[in-house]
Amino acid sequence: MSSRPLRGAPRAVTPEWPRSALLAGTRTSRLIDLEGRSAELTRRSGRQLQQMRISREAGGVAMTGDTIDLRQLDPCTAARYAALADRYRDHPEDQAPVSEPGEETRWLADELPGEKRGFGWVGRRWSRRGGVLVRARFLEMRSTTTFQDHGPALDTVLRIQPADDTPPFDAARRLTVPMDYLTVLHRTKEVVLLVSPNGRSYGVDWARTSLLAGVTEARVIAPDGSELPVAGRPDLIWALMNLLASEGLSVTKPVLDLRKRRLRTVAGMVTRVVQDHADPRTCA
Known about the structure:
- By secondary structure, this protein is of the alpha+beta class.
- It is built from eight helices and eleven strands.
């Protein structure tokens, strides 16, 4: 009896989200050949798909960041990649456009599920007992067969930088990564972690993470109604998040409005933090 599925019968389909991100151009993709030359493959989906098939047949090929280095592969797999590169060198593939015509001004993240972005909620007990925020960075993100309401469950490895400036360490976690955050992986892999007062528990704060990553533009309104320049400046936004957390102030929206009565006590400190973080775009 044939084991092939009947025509029209439903088949199991498993999304491969990291590979899909590469094909879509959300993540950059490069290849270093056996002679050390680098080739840019971002948004060249035909060649990328052929490489993925080689990788799958080889049992997986490790990437350093978003780069495959043929000098680090076994000779057989490297030769297959090199032969594929030769074919595309003779018949180059055009790079797909960043967006479809008419979509240049549409921000995809606003239409995808994810956490509400903001400067963050602060639990009084957590703040009083010494809870802190720390930054971390994704080193690995691997797909699983699970998809939650607002994103895929991924097996990840995070490099965590402790708040006390001790050496960073790596931690493996299975995380549900919001779809809106996946749209900015091409420019950042940073996340914000909430650390328990005893320092034993680390949890991803997706609201702060998404704001820091620029999924939504952060804004600060001064007491006089003018707007302070914070958009696109993650280090400044990070400093403001820590200031608010240290003062036990929750701001669950992406707009920090210093005209509000409960925020007037930190208006001066916020202004000084902004002034201390000079915008490099305005420096000579």
